[in-house]
Every structure is written in structure tokens, then in C-alpha cells.
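Researcher: Please predict.
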Amino acid sequence: MMFIKKISFSAIFALATIQGSIAQELSPEVRVQIATVLNEVARKEISIGKITIDSAKLQKNELILFANTNCSYIPFRENNVLEIYSRVRTLLTPDFSNCKVKIYANKKAIEDLIPTALKSRKEKGTISFTHKSTKPLTTRLSNPFAPTKGLVNRHIALWQSHGYYYEAKLSRWEWQRARVFQTVEDLFTQSYVLPYLVPMLENAGANVLIPRERDTQVAEVIIDNDNNRDTSIYSEINTDKEWQTGSSPGFAHFRNHYVDFENPFKEGTYRFTQTVKKGKENLAEWIPSIPETGKYAVYVSYQTVDNSTDDALYTIYHKGGVSRFKVNQTMGGGTWIYLGHFSFDKGKNPSGKVVLSNRSSKSGRIVTADAVKIGGGYGNIARRVSPCGIVTENRKSSDDNAPAVSTKLPQIDYPYETSGYPRFTEAARYWMQWAGIPDSIYSESHGQNDYTDDYKSRGLWVNYLAGGSAAAPNDKGLNIPVDMAFAFHSDAGTTPNDSIIGTLGIFQTAANDGIFANGTSRYASRDLTDLIQSHIVNDIRRLYEPNWTRRGMWNQSYYEARVPKVPTMLLELLSHQNFADMRYGLDPRFRFTVSRAIYKGMLQFLANQYKQDYVVQPLPVDHMSARFTKATEVELTWQPVDDPLEPTAKAEQYIVYTRIGEEDFDNGTLVNKNSYRTNIPSGVICSYKVTAVNKGGESFPSEILSVGKAIQTKGTVLVINGFDRISAPADFVAPQDSIAGFLDQLDHGVPYKTDISYIGSMKEFRRNIPWMDDDASGFGDSYSNYETKVIAGNSFDYPSIHGKAILKAGYSFVSCSDEVLENGSVELQDYPFVDLILGKEKQTKMGRGAMALEFKTFTPSMQQALTDYCQKGGSLFISGAYVGSDLWDNPMANQIDKDFATEVLKYKWRAGQAAIEGKVKSVTSPYSVLGIQYTYYNELNAESYVVESPDAIEPATNEAFTVLRYSENNLSAGIAYKGKYKTFVTGFPFESLRNESERESLMKSVLDFFDSPTE
């Protein structure tokens, strides 16, 4: 046997020697030529280092070429793989004409690096990462629609980079990244995840789990069976099956703050009862004492026990009505489970509560009840230097296996300190402690280093969520069948020439022998990474920046990519330190598009894993109009919007949401066509928003239109919402390229609804100032006076504000979007008075300005429609911050625009940035305006968008007069004209006035002026 073995080994050695000599005949010149082909293919898509052919061998009748790691960064598709092999074969000498060719990169043949979802032929026997769970963690019952080709029954764990943390070495709380370009990464990625990405995934039906607080509401109310720290009430209704106290620990809120490893979910009790299928039901009720009227996130908690029910019925009573949920209590016990955001009135009201029933589809199971959390609150985890005084150096996620360097601090009695910041700003490590996650998950360092604990906790948290499920069957945890994980980061680094650093994807395949628990290859994470990165880069290039950089797909051992036992991607979207990137990164339009691209990549990946077809949710509708068809009957119409990037994103049905008076929007009514009729009560404002739905899910909401029927109406006013701008702040680049930056004092931009990432104005504009540390960020360094604030943006809800003042003046009103005016779908002549809302509308670029400007105040079609209306004797009220400067002080300004303002609207521009104090006064003129002082929002705040640059406008004709002036300098703030028609124009937005009485006074003056005889 030994002799045979020796012969075998000798033969193998000889064969290898022969093959090696043959492979050597692949000349260096041919290798370079093949590498050139690969580099040419790569340059079409990505920006990476040079690709080389490191080695080659002939194995049987196959020539195998080994490219360096850079080659694996190419997004391989069937077409470019075919191109590569075709071109390579033409480069080979006749000696290899009969050989098959295979190119390897990162230990895989390049054809095997094509994402499975993009292969025309599906490989048999490939194991997918799937779960057999039939009931998700939570299910919304009150929605009038449920997607069937979206993300229903999918559980996605994701997180938004870092967060405020305690740095023991400095004995202080601080950000994990530098303050730069008016934000900090710890908040910047949150501005994508919370307003955009999470709602998109939830609108597709997914359950999204986040290890940071998702509610920016700083108030928090805890209602619990053990004790309540305010006047909130927990109560029970017992029938045949009484509520009882459980035998294991539950939640209790006995402390103002929590130190070391104190766990509120181990300090109290929970309640339980048996489920019933019919008959009388047991109820548990949580009635909060709400500190201020507003919108709050609602979280529930319970315990998972033997025989837990999978359909615990929760009902939330709120300002918009009643919303019901089923919660699968066989998973997720002992932590906060998010149900949704709801509006509540101030105080303690039976109409604002959470109720749990023991009604179930199956009797005899166990339903448990513990605390309910409403709102986000402030951080309540107190930290200090560990008692031993030992601290360790912060290590990067990619260096976490390096030995920790320890330092002993002076022996001082370090006090416990909370952050003093809203909880949504804090790092995941602190949320986890408040949410009952074991300290072995959130503090691997045993309290010595919160920085490393934080990034490690996120991956460990994924496994804890999935513990006991098929994803992590041998781990202890919450039994949630997590389908994938996603870490959203931005990178560092700069370029000297304003080029884009761009988008990097990171995954890891070597851990756990390269497979997940069910046998799926960890290369599924590469598929996920490729799909998401491709959607991001392709969509940015098509819509905003053709030169957006696609970086590599790194298969590297970053902790957040390596540790999760589910397919995971770590995204570095762009460089938050690079001005060229951040000109895009701060723009809400960019944030929406990127988030939608991520959602599409996740959807495509998960649909492929489950071997299902998928449909992408539609874009929001536009061209909206609300008009009276009868005395109190209203018809609402709209148009769907096609997505040029996604053919499946077609609207099939619509949901109309209604808000009556001061209540909130209801759960919606499903309609089959793009119109809706309803009757409204008199004397009350009724508001509507619309979403488009298809089998993939629900779109983002439309703008909000409102109508009101006065009890004894003087007539009907048409309100046109022409303010749909959302944008980044103003930026500049000096001609000599020595300074650049953002000028939010000139134009803060317009957030989508709110901004949760703004920290303060930029203060360092010199490009040559380098980063020294996170307290001295160099170029882009910014103030921090707003970093705990939520900044108001465009609410898309201004017809209701104008309408309320109109209704108060005795007039009815209807409303429409500016697109309806521009395409001629509304007859202005049907309305004696028209109110055009322009807010902060003005022509705005995206990034460096590669694409056309958007948001012009007066488009050519609008100018024509308004001109026709005025010439037929109409009365027109226009208000906006850029009604003059957008037509004069603008590189795109033209004489036609100026003539429209002067000859039709009867004003001319005098100055931009006309005032900073936010005060306006009425002045004596032939056209009376009620003589009071008006104040508008001139500073960033949570209530209304800021008006930082109002316009000064002056009369352009003898029949027009100044009726309002800025108090600080007497510049003309508003004009009125009376001739064959009437106009009333202000250089500040009407809706930005601070209080209701001021708005009522000014609107009454405008309408009284319009009601006076014309000349």
C-alpha cells in the first residue's frame, strides 16, 4: 500500500510539474493583456485599484487564471462575464485554443459572483436563507390594504451607525465621529434610516428592528403594572380567566437612571391570563398621562413563556381613531416591541390608551402583559469610569481582534453621568440596556470601553434577536426569525479636487466555516451587498450625478459584517468628510432616492431567497385637487407617478386618509380609481392625503389638501400649494478653490417634514485646514448648538393653515397642487379669490448642479395661467420668501420672469435677505391692512420651517402700494395693487407667521381688500 501511495504521489507531482510548465507558457504579456480587459470592464462601473493576473494554472483541460482581490469588486453580470471570457479567449495563443477558461477572484469563479437574483438560470440545489415562520412578530390589522409581493413576514435588523457615547478616557459623553459639514455621522445616517428607509420597508410589510431609539419625541411615558411615576394608569378587567402575576421577572421603572448593568426588565413583574376564542374577554389597559399634545411612538412589552399565544390583540386609541395589531408573543418577550407612531392629546384621556385583549384564534394559550412605553425620552443610562480605573483604547471594527491596550486613570471618585441628550441621539449600547438586552450583548468589555462595546453590540444583538430561531438555533435569544441585517454608515476621507468618494459595500464570508446555520453560503451576503450597492449607484447616476463613484465590495472582517448569523451588509454610503459627497448627502431628495434604492435591493434579495416574485411600491401621487361638487360634497382627484427606474412600481389602488378638524388622520379608505367623493361638515377644516398601493406595498403620502365650508359663506377661495421644495442648504465654491462650504444662514434648505441630523452652522471654510481630532475637524468643522434639536421642514400641510384663517374670515375654501394649475386642470375663473402658497419655493440645484434646477416659483405655464386669471378680473394673494429673488437674483433669471412680476403681479424685487428679526408691521396706504405687528419664524425651530432670507419687494406701478414693512429697517415687505384686478404679495410666507391671531388678522385684511370694489 505504501508503494502504491508513493507512485500516486510521484505521478501527481509529475503531472503538476507538466501542468505548471504549460501554464508558464502563458506569457507575461498575455497576462497583462487579460488584466487590461478586466480593468476596462471594471472602469465602466467602479473606481478601484489596478487589477492584475497573479497566477495561472492548467488543470486538465481548463486554464485557470487567478486575479487579485480588486477583480472581485466588479459587479459581475451575465453580460460582462460573457464579454470578459470572449475577449480573453481572443488573447490566448493556439496552445490554449481547446482549453476552457476560468477566472477566479477572491476564491470564486467570476461567474459565481453574479448575484443569484440576476442569473437567468437558477442553480439547482442552492440553499436559500429562509424561515418557515408563518406569523410575523407584529401585524397591522387596521390597514385597509396588505401587500402580497412585498416584505410581509420578513424581519429585518438594521442600524444607523454610531451614536452619542460615554468616553471613559476623557470622562465625558461625546460623538463617535467628528462634527463636520453641519452634521455628525452619528446623526447623519439616522436622517436616512428613520424618515425614509424604515417607513419604506414597513410600507412593504416588513417588521424592522432597530437597536437605537426610533422616536425623536423627547417626552416619554411609561405605564406599568408594578408602578407608575406619574398619574398614568394601568388597570385590568377580569372575567372568567383572571389576570395573574407571572413567576419570572418582568419590567419595572423604579429608577431615575440605570447604572452599571442594571436591567429594568429584571426588576418587576408581569401579568398573564389564558386566551379565549369566544365569550367574555379579559382586558389590560394602559392609560398614559401625556405631557404635551403630539406624535409619540408606542412600544409594548410582554414575556414569552411556554404556550405563548401568537396573536395577542393590542388596540391603540389615538387622535386618528383606533388601530389594532396582533403581536406574536412566541417571540420578542422581555424587550420593547414597536407598534407605530400615533398622535395623543395632552393629559390623561380614555380616548388615548393601549388595550390588550385575551381574545385569540385559539383558547387555552397564554397572553402576557407588561409595560407600555410611549415616546422616545431622554437617555437614562448613567455611566462613569469603571471602579478599577482601567480603560482601554478604542479599536476599529476591522481591528477588533488586536490586543486591547489598557490604561489606568487616576483614582478619583468619578460620578455617574447621563448624556443629557434625547435618547434617539444615543448609541445602541444604551438603548439595549433600557430595552432589557443582556449585558453580555451590550458590554463585552464589562464596562471598560463603551466605544468598542457599541459597535460589537450591534452584531451580537442581531444574534440575540434571532436566538432560538432557525437563523441561530443554538443561541439564547428572542426567537425572532431575522432574515437579514444592514449596517448604515458613512465613511471618512477627502479628495482635493471635489471629486466624489462614493459608495462602498462590505461583507464577510469566512466566519462559521463560510455557511449560515441552515447551510446557506455566506456569499449570500455578497449578493445582498451587490444588489443594494448597484441600486444605490445606478439610481444616483441616473437622477442626480452621472459621475457618482462606485467603490469596491470588500470581503473583510469588520465586526458588524462578520458576527451576525444572517446575511449582512455594511454600507459606507459616502464620505461625510468630503464636501463633494455631502453636497448630495444633505439633500432630502438624495436621501429619499438612496433609501428607496436600499429598500429595492433588500426586496430583490429577499424575494430571491424565498423564490417569490416581487413588486416595488409606487411613488407618491401628485396633481392633486380638492373641490366642491355640491354644497358639502367634496371631490378629491390625483394622478399616479411612474417610476423611471422601476417598471413594477405602478399604482393599482389608492388609500385616502382623512383628518377632521384638530384630530389626526384616520386609518384610510381604499379606493380603486384616482378620485374620491365625500361629504364634509360645515365650519370644520377637512384634510386629505393619498397614497398609492400595489402588490408590493404603499407609497409615501402625497401633500395634504384641505377644504372648508363656511356656515354662512361669503364665497369660495382657491388655495394653491406651490411649495413643494425640499433641498440641501446653500453651498459655494470660491473661484480660487481656497474656501468652500455650506451657507445655511443664506438658505438653510428645506428638510422633508423634519431634520434630525442638523447640529449647527459650518464655521471652518478653509480647505487646507486638516482634521486633527474629532474636536478639531478641520475643513467643514461645525457648531453644535442644534445637535439635540428636531428642525421643522416642509410639512406639505399648508392649505389647512391658510384655510383656517380663510374660514375664520367667513369664506369657504378648496385647494389644489401647483401641477393642477400648470396643466390647466383647474379653472381659476371659478374662484373670485386665489391664494398661492410659495413658502420657500425657489430654483434649486442638486449637488454640483449636474441636472436641471427644480422648484421654480413661477414656471412659464403658471405665469400664463395667473396672467389669464388676472386679466379676467381675479384677485390673487401670493406669499413666499423668494417671490422676488427667484426672478431677479438668480443665474437663470430672464426678462420674461421680471416682466411677469412687474406687469402682472405689480411688484419688483428690491433685496434678498431683507430682514433677520422676523418682524413685520402694517403701514399707512390707500389699501388698509389691520394695524398690528406680525412675527414670522426667523430661527430654526421644531414648529415651522425657518424664514432666514425673506424678500423685500416694492410696488412696480403707481396703482400698487407698500402695505407691510420689515420693522427693523422699513424695507417693503408686502404690496397691494388695485386696478382691473387685485394682487396682494408678501416677501415672507403667510404660513410662517407665529400665531393664529396674526394669520387671521392678515388674511382678513387681504380678503377685505379683495372684496372692495375694483377701479
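Model: Confidence is low (pLDDT under 50) at residues 1-24.
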